[in-house]
């Protein structure tokens, strides 16, 4: 027995990914050999790719390039036809939007926005959580949710260190530097300021904001020593609970924020690409209508998440919570810390102002390109050059990205140059340079999205999607509302263990054919499933934000599962509700649209 265990430990387990990589294609090989149909060959490649993506036997982007050689060699698609789908309008839209997002990160504009919001939202634990989640949600709509989460973690740690500081840490900080924490003399001054009525920190008499003195008298959960001081170990416990709650809130808000706009996350782009490839007429889903549908649901999910994490970690009332014993002095010290961090950024620079201006222009160009309620600016070009001209969202995205490489980051040339500056003039750097873009842009995601498009196209051409859609047509016996709930819940659970982009690439073509077979608007099934791909709250491996906060908080996996399982169910219920209310109003989902008859056979 011992030798068998040793053999498995030393010769099998370390190489299990290699065994999966070799054995999976061999085990599935009878499928294309016995059937010998194009559908079977296409299904074989997709099943191998799905297995590789789930087990991560290869880097996910590398798995995404398998179709380039597999589909041509198996006679499913030609090489030229296949390579076209790897760089199409959706990919260009992704690159353009990501370039603007990287420029926002490069000039630290996202940090300025985050500190500004947190400074003004309030410094009590509940308000801090709301501020962190609101800021993370907004930033992750436009920039990488991974970058947003990574930026928020050190800010959370700095604020919690100021909010829950033990006497030992305070003494060490005072001996190191006098301005890190508030001294004893400053404590009296801060308490005097608090008694004068600071709107952000003055305690109220309600259950939520009972004073510290009342709380100390009435709450037996808070231990004190002979000097009426809270023990250091109890303060550390408070900080531990609050840190876990804040970090989970940041991760959940980052995941939800990606659903707000088309460019927020990979599955959104996969959906737009599949719709544009499958139907030649407009489907009614564009940047403006996407935001009109998803932003309300996103906000509802974040608010519910805020309430759920408060219930889980703080309780419903402050006097019953182990993390709410915050003195007014500590809250003022936190506000002082945040204001100092914000002041250290200095006044907004020309670089930041230029990037912010271009970012706002891009959002307006996206919103008003082709809104449904008024003619968009793209209609001007259609009227001028003919109806065959179609301007997509990639055009303004690449235009603004191009301007970032053109416009200077500082005004120190020509008439803007300081006359007293005797140094030789030199060319001002642009707002974005290629080195930063090359280092930060996730080229692997582009290959992953391309691999998803290749799978969708191959499934369409081989007939696999239509065959699977016919098989799933038996769900027609269920109410359509129940079908949406089941599809969304299944998607949310599947995306816990695999890439959300890979999940969307596999499911969306099948859901499109299923909707057509049961005579339901394809958006009714595809849109909720796409949004549900971002509802990965349970496991650390589900999304990069989950992995970041899991590592930073040192929590157990079971703790994340307990908090995330309820969030999964709640968010699936929210998307089921919104697609049957707001979605019906926006996209007329009760009727089979005419654009479903305008199928296209080419990319």
From TrEMBL:
Residues 191-229 are annotated as: Disordered. It is a multi-pass membrane protein. The keyword Transport applies. GO terms for molecular function: citrate transmembrane transporter activity; succinate transmembrane transporter activity. Pfam families: Na_sulph_symp. The keyword Transmembrane applies. One of its GO terms (cellular component) is plasma membrane. Keywords: Membrane, Signal, Transmembrane, Transmembrane helix, Transport. Residues 218-228 have a biased composition (Polar residues). Its main location: membrane. It comes from the Eukaryota. PROSITE patterns: NA_SULFATE. Residues 1-36 form the signal peptide. It is found in: Membrane. The chain crosses the membrane at residues 60-80, 92-119, 139-160, 245-267, 287-309, 345-368, 397-416, 482-511, 523-543, 563-587. Belongs to the SLC13A/DASS transporter (TC 2.A.47) family. NADC subfamily. This is Solute carrier family 13 member 5. It comes from Halocaridina rubra (Hawaiian red shrimp).
